[in-house]
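Researcher: Please translate sequence to structure tokens.
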Amino acid sequence: MVLKRKAYQKLLEWKKGSGGKSALLLEGARRVGKTHVCRQFGQSEYKSTILIDFSAVTKEVLSLIENHGDDLDYFFAQLSVYYNTPLYERDSLIVFDEVQLFPLARQRLKALVADGRYDYIETGSLLSIKQNVKDILIPSEEDSIEMHPLDFEEFLWAMDDEVTVPFIRECFDKTVPVGAAVHQRTMDKFRQYLLVGGMPQAVLAYLDGCDFEVADREKSRILALYRNDIAKYATGYEKKVVDIFDAIPGQLAKAEKKFRLSSIGKAARQRNYGDAFMWLVDAMIVNHCFNSTDPNVGLALSSERATQKLYMADTGLLVTHTFHDNEYMDNELYRAILFDKLNVNEGMILENAVAQAFRTSGHRLHFYSRVDSGNRRNNMEIDFLIVRNGKVCPIEVKSASYRYHSSLDKFVAKFSKTIGKPYIVYTKDVMEKEGITHIPAYMAMFL
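Model: Translation complete:
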């Protein structure tokens, strides 16, 4: 089964817009589907494709790139023979896969693009980690896009459903309910998506027989791969990266989801863990969310970098990561999610899914937290702040049985003159109430 991915359309747009004047950098976590979409793109859109996988490349190819980058006629002739693939001017694609493992190849792109004979795509992660940019010149002839795990619409495509999202999008735009039957059916599919996640191997494993346990095994393999990558590539601070990675489920399970380094150790300090946090972010394994202390002046401008929340980039991986020491049958999250019985702690799954939807839609993640030790009534905690139509919109993620939204009310009152529409994301149908738009979690991707 071939998964339909939105990244493919972005590759088409790049090819049409670039006309060979730039290379494309496709960034994404390991196992997110970068190589597969590049192969599919090359097979469908070009007469021939050469994919150089730097995780398994031979010394001969490395030597060719390192020593013959100035003689392009020789370089291309040797490459064509080695891969037994003819190259056609303006109709061949060369892919540098996992380019972070051989940064010099990235630098070579300046000359390759200037030559103009072929198109070039690089794939990778950890592309701004110090050791991967040291002593190389990053080419200015490089466009970039991010590739994330499958979003909910792509998950529905995999389930052979291409009609649900256009309909619920129309309801979102008009702020009208989708109706009981459609809502129930869509929430059922969304709950499956929460559990399976969007990593292609897990999705394919699940769809093969609708077996969560089989999908869980695939996710366990991906998490093991991430741990191996940490041990191999987080040189000098691998233990700190593992400590943060392992602490994520416990931090998200708390009512206040801000990441506390004290959970790792009493002596842990932000200045000593900065590189470890950034390694996980740059590997696109996690999404970080910063406290924006003054939404009036812009989210990034008022970000308090020391206060952050960490979400897993894939919610399905979070479900498996949370219970990595237990057998699949002991994972009560599956039952809680499927039967809509999430308690406060398990609500982290829904919040993580919303964070994932926002990042996939291109938002940088921010939240708002205010603690007034002199007057607790002034305390506020808003799960997310995003910019829509030029204005900051506050967003709270709630369970179906929630009763109050006091923080949201106080935030709206405090910033009423400058903010946009407030939202509550929950598990019921669309509703307008008390000036707040309530939308089901499967609509978060539209915000």
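Researcher: Any highlights?
Model: The longest strand covers residues 303-312.
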